[in-house]
Fold this sequence. Notes:
Layout: H1 5-14, E1 24-27, E2 31-34, H2 38-43, H3 46-52, E3 60-63, H4 73-89, E4 94-95, H5 102-108, E5 117-120, E6 134-137, H6 140-149, E7 152-155, E8 159-165, H7 174-185, E9 194-199, H8 206-214, E10 223-225, H9 230-238, E11 259-264, E12 271-273, E13 281-283, H10 284-287, E14 294-298, H11 299-302, H12 305-315, E15 325-329, H13 333-341, H14 344-350, E16 353-355, E17 376-379, E18 395-398, H15 401-410
Parallel strand pairs: 2-3, 2-5, 3-4, 5-6, 8-9, 8-11, 9-10, 14-15, 14-17, 15-16, 17-18
Antiparallel strand pairs: 1-7, 12-13
Amino acid sequence: MGMTFAQKVLAKKSGNEFVEVGQIVTVRPDHLLTHDNTAAIIGKIVNELDEFGLIDPNLPIIVLDHVIPAAAEKNATGHKKIRDFVKKYGLNHFFDIGEGICHQVVYERGFALPGRIILGSDSHTCSYGAVGVFSSGIDRTEAAALMLTGKTWLKVPPTIKVTLKGELQQSVSAKDLVLDIIGDIGADGANYCAMEYHGDIQTLAMDQRFTISNMGVEMGAKIAVFPVDKITGAFLKNHGVSRDMVHFVWSDSDAHYVRELSYYLNKIEPMVALPHTVDNVRNVRDVEGVDIDQCLIGTCTNGRLSDFREAAKILKGNKISPNTRLLLLPASRAILRRAMREGLIDILVESGGVLLPPGCGPCLGAHQGALAPGEKCLSTANRNFKGRMGCKEAEIYLASPATVAASAITGKITDPRKEA
C-alpha cells in the first residue's frame, strides 16, 4: 500500500522507508518558529543554554508580532530579552517589530519549502501546508527542547482526503469554503489528522490556499496541506526560491484515507461563524441584520493583498456606518507597502478604516482593538472564542473580507453579494 503526504515526509525525515499511521518517529525539523513567547520559552532553559548552548543558530525563526509596538513595560522587557538572546547566540533568522505576522513572514521569506518540516510554538503554524510543508504547532516546552537538541518526536497522523470540485462564485472566498468545512465536520472533526486537499485546486490562488491551511487547526487537524503545482511554483519563484530547492512530495494513488469528503465550490455561499465556536457556522443570509460594533479585516488568515483588494472594491466610494469601527491589519510590511502603492489603503482609510501596524494585536485581544462588554465584532480572523478579543462579555463573528467590508458599510451583518 502507498503512503500519504504525512507518511512520506515523516518517513524521509526519520530515516525510514515506510512508516505506519500511529507510529512514533524522531525527526529534525528544518525550522522552529517562535514569536513574542520566545522570552517565556528560553526562560525555561536558562541553565541549559548556559551549559550547552543553542543547537543550531539556523533552526529558530523568531518574529516579534503579537504585541507590537510594546504596549506596556512587561511586553517591552520580553522583547528586549529576545533581542539579547538573538545577539548572544548569533541567530540568523530574527524579524523585529513591524515586519509582520510570523506566519506571513515565514511564508514570504522562503523558509516554507515543499517537503520540509516546520514546527512552531503557535497553533496556526499549520498555515505552510499551502506550499506543501508538514507544518504544525507545538507547545513551549517542546520548543525549548528543540532549541537544545534540534529533534523531537511526532506521531504519524491518519489522513482525511478533501476533494474540491468546480470554482467559487463571485464574492465567495476560501474563507467561506473553510468555514463551511469546519461547520460540516466540527471543531474536532479532524483531531490529529492530516487534511489533504485534492481536485480542482488550480482554481484557488495561493492566498486562498493559505487561508484554508491556516484554519486547519480549527477543525483539529495536525496539518492541512495542498500539493505543489504551477501556481505554487510561480509563488515560490516570486519569493526567490529556485527550482532546485523545491522537493515535490505528495501522496501515492493507493494511499489509505480514514475519511473522504467532497465539496462543490460553486455551491459554497458566504458563511459566518457565530459566537463562541468556529464550527457554529451559518449561511450569511440566516444572520443578516445583526448589529456590529467593530469590523476587523486582516490577521494571518485574511490580511493579504488579495483580501484588501476585495475589501477596497466594496468600500470604494462608500463610508462605513457611524455605528461601527473598521480596523485594518496587514499581515506584513510587504503587504502594507504593496497595498499603499496600489492605493488600497487610501480607499480603505478614506472609507473610515483605521490602519494598524502589521501584527497580531486585536486578533487575540492582546493589543489594540479590544472589545467592551456587550459589543459585537465581525472579523476575518480564525477564532471567535469567548474572551478572544479581550472581553468575555463580547461576541466575535467570523467571515470573509468581502462580508466584513459589506457589513462595515451597513453596520450590520450583510451579504457581500449585495454590495459587489
